[in-house]
Amino acid sequence: MELTRKIVDGEYGSVPIAVAGVSGYAGAELARLLLHHPRLKFSRPVFYGRAGEMQSTSLTDLHPQLATHDGPIDPVHPFDWDDLVERGTNILFLALPHEQSRKWAPEALARGIRVVDLSGAWRLQQDDLRAVYKLEDVDPVLARELQAEAIFGAPELHRNKIATARLVANPGCYSTSIILALAPLLQAGIVDIDHGIICDAKSGVSGAGKAATAKTHFMYAADNLSAYNVFGHRHTGELLEQLHLDASQIQFTPHLLPIPRGILSTIYLRLKEVTTPDAVAVLLRDFYKDSPLVRIHATPALPQIQHVVRTNFCDLGFELAKDGKRLVLVSCLDNLLKGAAGQAVQNMNLMCGWPEAEGLL
Amino acid sequence: MELTRKIVDGEYGSVPIAVAGVSGYAGAELARLLLHHPRLKFSRPVFYGRAGEMQSTSLTDLHPQLATHDGPIDPVHPFDWDDLVERGTNILFLALPHEQSRKWAPEALARGIRVVDLSGAWRLQQDDLRAVYKLEDVDPVLARELQAEAIFGAPELHRNKIATARLVANPGCYSTSIILALAPLLQAGIVDIDHGIICDAKSGVSGAGKAATAKTHFMYAADNLSAYNVFGHRHTGELLEQLHLDASQIQFTPHLLPIPRGILSTIYLRLKEVTTPDAVAVLLRDFYKDSPLVRIHATPALPQIQHVVRTNFCDLGFELAKDGKRLVLVSCLDNLLKGAAGQAVQNMNLMCGWPEAEGLL
Amino acid sequence: MELTRKIVDGEYGSVPIAVAGVSGYAGAELARLLLHHPRLKFSRPVFYGRAGEMQSTSLTDLHPQLATHDGPIDPVHPFDWDDLVERGTNILFLALPHEQSRKWAPEALARGIRVVDLSGAWRLQQDDLRAVYKLEDVDPVLARELQAEAIFGAPELHRNKIATARLVANPGCYSTSIILALAPLLQAGIVDIDHGIICDAKSGVSGAGKAATAKTHFMYAADNLSAYNVFGHRHTGELLEQLHLDASQIQFTPHLLPIPRGILSTIYLRLKEVTTPDAVAVLLRDFYKDSPLVRIHATPALPQIQHVVRTNFCDLGFELAKDGKRLVLVSCLDNLLKGAAGQAVQNMNLMCGWPEAEGLL
Amino acid sequence: MELTRKIVDGEYGSVPIAVAGVSGYAGAELARLLLHHPRLKFSRPVFYGRAGEMQSTSLTDLHPQLATHDGPIDPVHPFDWDDLVERGTNILFLALPHEQSRKWAPEALARGIRVVDLSGAWRLQQDDLRAVYKLEDVDPVLARELQAEAIFGAPELHRNKIATARLVANPGCYSTSIILALAPLLQAGIVDIDHGIICDAKSGVSGAGKAATAKTHFMYAADNLSAYNVFGHRHTGELLEQLHLDASQIQFTPHLLPIPRGILSTIYLRLKEVTTPDAVAVLLRDFYKDSPLVRIHATPALPQIQHVVRTNFCDLGFELAKDGKRLVLVSCLDNLLKGAAGQAVQNMNLMCGWPEAEGLL
């Protein structure tokens, strides 16, 4: 990380960035991405703990893999709004439990700080869908306004709105994998949505978070596979809103894979009309022609988890039955990167007017 | 494991059993089950290699985990029909490539030896479905007769026919998991089969066999998940024939899991009429009330791979959507046991008139 | 595996066995072994929870893999001394935290019930070594007497004493693997003990117990390896006492492997005199010639974890340097079986006068 | 990888770099590192296949994880000396079998191309140690000269010589982990080398290469641990030469871990004099004070594989017994990075006069 280059005027100005909540898995990846981000070389991000974590610590203490030769790197400060304001913070990432994000996002906006929220707190516009998060608002009127203003942070769908947004709700990991696979086909109107779409998704254990529970115990997860939340996983709401479907039109069942990270979603649907693999390929490629973080596999190659892990890509592939109507889509991503921290940085890039994939390739 | 039977003279008489092909993973499990089988205590099974494996070896050399304190256990002889006949072999297990099974089964039957074939050679009655195996028959007329006579070795479906069969075609691992889940519902006529049934199946690596290939390399399989044979896996034919469906009514897509063994199939279907979880549970329990190797999970518990690995059970569970029509079945088994060697022994038990689960609990 | 015994009246009489504490991993294996034990077919063991676990449950609720077709198997009762006494309990397994075992063993003995304790509570005779467990005795005088009476339950070393013991302290998993490898050589007096013996041991995660902690989290253990307790793991005391060494003569460092179960210990030592591989092999084979649960590998084959997992064996192998003096021993076992539940049943067999390996092959 | 920055004069000149052999695991990492190397932004490396691989392919075909949104990236050309010369190649990485490297390095040097060889072909100066590789030289006189000229590419030990070397022999993965741990202590003369040093090393499966063999089969490696080459692994020669020890003074036994990548070496030794943990820590820190790719852990923290995987660091830690003389060192690295491709790039950096860790942090 020798930084011997001269600063070319204006090339990398100072953009004060802060992160609240870096103790989790997505937090670690977010820190890593920001510390290596070429636009932040001369404007190092500032890290804060969660509310109530009053002791200072360091990134290295939390995540030893991030250490340098010279020992503990960046401090992790107790959270402090005054400190944030003083530093002129421009964008604040919230990598917090959703209850806390729901409280803190308004606080940040009130101080003129833009927010990228990695939780589920602001993703859903419909109250009944959002109810699954059991959120309580201090100021319900304000919260309603902010909710309406919040942009769902899927850059491939809402690139322009994100660029100017004050509050970006970073999508769920499962939902990202499914939405990116389905959006092109649904927008093209070729899916028989009334037949119903089946999304069988499988995720590595990091998706379950850092809390030590019976289900994150090595002995539970290793050499195992289990389905859970067969109907009603809370990411379902994102599918409904972003894909404009109702609950009878799409089914999503997640499974817990015995691997650290990665999601593979296998999606089964019927097309309205007989079509060809080429036509589907063209449709996908065209939809994502300007999306540097989506890779379309040429049939018959299909995405695999090992090809996306530790990358910021979402990989898409498909196979069409000989009848020309039954389509199987396969979508892969790293749940901590394109499914969380990588997508959050992608949103930051857009919000700063930088190239979307800067620091992510 | 309740063994309340009285032990009577001659009950454990001599039943000459032989196995051809014990070098693979299913072969190892078959050897282990037979060596521990209570009815074979005084009639040790005899093991043979594949055609062309002319050197004698021992089970221990092939599978060190089977060794005893006293060193190499049972020899594995070069295959020899005369030897088989001399020993008065009653039942011969074929754990061989399907091409070889297709040739050897007629040879065995001609010598009065009953066969349990673990390959795909004899499972399919329809020529067009069986074509996927590219089998060549020395005597096509005889092969056609034997094919017609062959019984699909799913004890839960064909218990009585298996008991008297000369040639039992042990089912595929994937197909066992799917057929056992669907048979009760399809036989009850409650499934909307024209809507289509989706079977998303996931299997451990032992299902891919012992050959060292790019796909069985640790670096390919570990920390990965991949879909393959999205349409047209060769076990599909078994689903069609056993479940009396046509190819448009059922879709089956397998995935390779980063675990040694175990299959989990997630099956999505619609019911013709609104029903209740209780009604589905009753239907499943009733169907399998006399099947000691099927376990029905009480909703909301679902089967998991870790609960069936190293057992001879197939575990079934389900969840019904609130609409009472969309049903998700989850079926788990150990692909080497209930999906191969365990089911083969279950078939042997039936063929010998012994309790179906003898030596399998 | 050969069961040539005649089955005679009364052979399988009633032997009331009970287990306290079946909720853990070793408890599950203990239950499984006892339920399948041929001598207990007509005398089913009784299962109890830990102190304070007042609610009845079932083995199936705790360990779904143990279920039968007919649903929940054996109940797990709240612990109750009166119930134990009423049932005429002969042997009680304690699969409990060591503090609890230290309290309950005297209680059982006072009621005429023999004890096999799977914890570390009674393994060490020297107070200073046992201090690591921070045990408190209600009646220190009695505890001292019982401690002196307790037999270290390594059947290969103390077979005869175990047969008549009232209190058997089942050895630690790491210690079993190391003691069985070293005992023959040390007893033969051929090891240069003053040079120092290095034991580099590696264990699967089940050894860390069922509690969900930061270190048993899948994300910590998977794809990882870490050394811990480099000096001073509490199993060290067992090595010192059983092998008659002092702390300067043996070093033992454990590592956490990313696998569910299995221990491999690599042991480095120097011999006093130049010797040959054959001489070492003869010495090991001779020492274990009557030990059905120890398998000696013929050089150059070495034990591997996959060959002992789910077996009750300890596998031993070695390689001798060309100098004839530097010896590397490799010892493998399943930490839940030969390292815990399997060895406990082996002890029970001896205490009942049954063949040592009954129900364990 | 948006490259919108202006080129500051002279900052990143053109440095023609080529790689021969990118189909393996280390080749993939080498390609990735070079493609992201800041000094090579305007001078993209050129990739060639092995001898005999005559078909052009692409990095993406070989390693789909390296693909970009825009599809297949860099071509992989059939190997061609003329092409290399025409491009003015400055440094050639050889990621080839050692037999091929032994032949090609002289060819490259004869054409004025400097070589970083990742195989074992040029690492050992002593003929008897190198004999393990069974190398044949076309021109033995020249080979002897080049061997004498070859520099062992451990930057932390031979930084200055590497800078001007024509032929750098990149160290083995195991040897790197052990040499970096021991060099500071041995150079300080505080180790009782006559007592003997024990190196118990454990490596992930990628160390065994990409060839599909019985030992790289998922079913062999998964859920397993095995020792191999107990005495006489071919990396031992590097330890002897680099650490100036004879074969009686150091023992090195490798084990195969069930993980994709990472090495942990546990090293046991005795010090000549009683010392303190602080003194050891100071010694290590001082030795590596200018080595940006070595991280020293503060006792009692020890390195773990998960903290070095996907990094270019070697992590070192230790624990000293209370007697002040028995020392256990723990050394971790990623066998494909600091143990192969990362160290190769570190060598390239030195050879080009760039900061040692450029592109590696």
TrEMBL record, chains A, B, C, D:
Pathway: Amino-acid biosynthesis; L-arginine biosynthesis; N(2)-acetyl-L-ornithine from L-glutamate: step 3/4. The active site is at C173. Its EC number is 1.2.1.38. The keyword Membrane does not apply. Residues 16-165 form the Semialdehyde dehydrogenase NAD-binding domain. One of its GO terms (cellular component) is cytoplasm. One of its GO terms (molecular function) is NADP+ binding. InterPro entries: AGPR (IPR050085), AGPR_AS (IPR023013), AGPR_dimerisation_dom (IPR058924), AGPR_type-1 (IPR000706), NAD(P)-bd_dom_sf (IPR036291), Semialdehyde_DH_NAD-bd (IPR000534). Its main location: cytoplasm. It catalyses: N-acetyl-L-glutamate 5-semialdehyde + phosphate + NADP(+) = N-acetyl-L-glutamyl 5-phosphate + NADPH + H(+). It is found in: Cytoplasm. GO terms for biological process: L-arginine biosynthetic process. SUPFAM superfamilies: Glyceraldehyde-3-phosphate dehydrogenase-like, C-terminal domain, NAD(P)-binding Rossmann-fold domains. Keywords: Amino-acid biosynthesis, Arginine biosynthesis, Cytoplasm, NADP, Oxidoreductase. Coiled coil: none annotated. Pfam families: Semialdhyde_dh, Semialdhyde_dhC_1. Catalyzes the NADPH-dependent reduction of N-acetyl-5-glutamyl phosphate to yield N-acetyl-L-glutamate 5-semialdehyde. Belongs to the NAGSA dehydrogenase family. Type 1 subfamily. This is N-acetyl-gamma-glutamyl-phosphate reductase. It comes from Granulicella arctica. The lineage of its organism: Bacteria, Pseudomonadati, Acidobacteriota, Terriglobia, Terriglobales. The gene is argC.
